[in-house]
Amino acid sequence: MTGTMLAIVKERPERGASLVRVDIPAIADDEVLVKIDYASICGTDVHIYLWNEWAQNRIKTPHIMGHEFSGHVVETGRSVRGFKEGDFVSSETHIYCGHCYQCLTGHSEVCQNLQILGVDRAGAFAEYIAVPERVLWKNDPLIPAAWASIQEPMGNALDTVNAESVAGKTVLITGAGPIGMLAVGIAKAFGATQLFVSDLSQYRLDIAKRMGADTVLSPLRDDVEAVVREQTHGVGVDVVLEMSGSEKAIHQGLAALTPGGRMSLLGLPDQPVTLDLTNEVIFKEIRVYGVTGRKIFPTWETVSRLLASRLVDPTPAITHQLKFEDWQTGMDAMVAGTSGKVVLQIAGR
Ligand code: NAD
Ligand code: ZN
Fold this sequence. Notes:
Blueprint: E1 4-10, E2 18-23, E3 31-41, H1 43-50, H2 53-58, E4 63-64, E5 68-76, E6 88-91, E7 94-95, H3 101-104, E8 115-116, E9 128-132, E10 136-138, H4 145-148, H5 151-161, E11 170-174, H6 178-189, E12 194-198, H7 202-210, E13 215-217, H8 224-231, E14 237-242, H9 247-256, E15 257-265, H10 277-282, E16 287-290, H11 298-308, E17 318-323, H12 327-336, E18 341-345
Parallel strand pairs: 11-12, 11-14, 12-13, 14-15, 15-16, 17-18
Antiparallel strand pairs: 1-2, 1-4, 3-5, 3-9, 3-18, 5-6, 6-10, 7-8
Helix pairs in contact: 5-6, 5-11, 8-9
The structure holds nicotinamide-adenine-dinucleotide and zinc ion.
The site of nicotinamide-adenine-dinucleotide has 28 residues, from helix 6 and helix 9.
């Protein structure tokens, strides 16, 4: 397809971005062109928008941001077999090579030659996007298009929750950002019996509560470890899901975790973290999991079923649904931390 489209473009290496007209991308033989219905803003897009140190080292301008989306196929490359015009799709954002050791042994989410959509190639804050067939995902038609655009971060949340079973377990989630909020609904759906959530923001704690948290705690006001201990009969929680990237929260989580428990780390500290491994981890026999990306595609299948069945209702976590032209309002809310998921309506607005 030829012609032009609207896209949010990082035009220059500085803070900001603009909604401008650019060419509709051409597709390679193994790619599909998707007309985007909804796109949602991720923390990574905020980093690119603010032009932090990571973005300065990684992003080449001009660049189309965004990677979480849902849409419809409008064109397929010559070698594409699994998709046709009209298919309702989303996309995995980790574009794996399919040939390296990790790809060949079931860990394509940590492929050695990973390219990330909206980071290393043109993204989804646009009317059209070109995506390789191997990362395209056919959506369940029972899932509303706006919800379908948040499956990717929901996949991060799912793999953090499910590094081991939470059924019948007591759980503390540190950090109720957009991903932590989604993790609340998922942990409940998978049978967590008592769910604590900590965050510095009361706005976000209120959303966590609406997503199903039993007890919400602010480290600014509450002694997180003491409350967790008191409400678990002195035992501490079985599971900690770290979704803040805060060193303080990591120590707090480990302190609230019962010996023999499990901690999954998704949050990304921006500095190296110092741990007393002997006392915080080893003598307590804690199992620690690092989580990155999502299993391609087992995690998508589970996320899809949770949404299609309404076992997880993400409505409280989707705080903004805005027209594409109003993207700045959504970006400002993300920067200020006064949002959950911000979803932009692109087609049919
Ligand atoms: P976010 O930054 O919006 O949310 C983090 C939340 O943690 C905020 O609401 C903040 O108030 C809260 N917080 C800060 N200090 C805290 C403390 N001491 N105790 C409790 N809460 C505290 O981020 P998000 O988009 O929800 O993502 C969550 C984390 O996961 C981020 O660190 C992000 O970088 C990371 N992430 C990792 C991957 C991965 O593949 N590993 C993917 C996506 C996001
Ligand atoms: Zn690979």
